[in-house]
Amino acid sequence: MAAAQMLQKPLAEFLQLVGERQQTQLQASLKTEVADAETLFSAMRYAALGPGKRLRPALVYACAGTLGGANFDPVACDAPAAALECIHAYSLVHDDLPAMDDDDLRRGRPTCHVEFDQATAILAGDALQTRAFELLLHCDAAPALKLQMLAELAQASGARGMVAGQAIDLAAVNRSLDPVALEQMHHLKTGALIRASARIGALLGGADESQLQAVTGYAEALGLAFQVRDDILDVTTDTATLGKTQGADAARNKPTYVSLLGLDAARDKLQQLQRDALAALDDLGGDATLLRQLADYVVQRRH
What we know:
Blueprint: H1 3-8, H2 11-29, H3 38-49, H4 55-68, H5 74-95, E1 105-106, E2 109-110, H6 112-115, H7 118-138, H8 143-157, H9 162-171, H10 179-204, H11 209-236, H12 239-242, H13 248-251, H14 257-261, H15 263-280, H16 289-300
Antiparallel strand pairs: 1-2
Helix pairs in contact: 2-4, 2-5, 3-7, 4-5, 4-10, 5-7, 5-10, 8-10, 9-10, 10-11, 11-15, 11-16, 15-16
């Protein structure tokens, strides 16, 4: 399929194509390579190849395609997108552990530590994290671009990004957070990797500084919208639809946008974030239809 055709597909078909490309890439990247470590690799594949939205890879392809235009090459996006999905999968495996959020259901299946055991899940998460950086190191990109992507991923996934957000989240149990603190937590825990996905895609698409800033504004609003929608779904949707335990945040007395603002105000917040994401695209230039559709998808999703 020509690159332009991929970008011109309806959103549902585009997401399906992203999923298929990533399934192929991740299967090749996570095949068993070490004797006597078969269980580890099985757990890695279980975490990364299970059902999922593949939103972060979709942002890589969509941003690269929007900015790359006729020069867009989906093959160049395959490994970087898989790296982001490996980081995301590792974060879910560790978040679900008894010492963290203590969940036994993820994407409609037993969580990794339930399907295997806690030690294997910890090691699988560790290995997925390092595999992500291997994928970027060995991808077919110019050295300067490769270094930029590595820096984006490292900052987003570490102590100045996702890990810091999880630490703040754990410390916030049974405590009240004001709206500013709650927003900062989610910019780190959920938003940092979404922001990195969009920025890495933009870099692959040859973004200049002004375009990179526009994509950043879009992704920051989108990442926060993703979390607000999660908070709303946690109290309005059943476990079977969510694929994870409904009401888990309330049961753990964790601060959410719904608990802080109320359901109606949380919905208003979500709509404002959608407007913010779309407004940021006004400064991007070119045809940003696909990115607008992804913003709509994030705020309207049912799981």
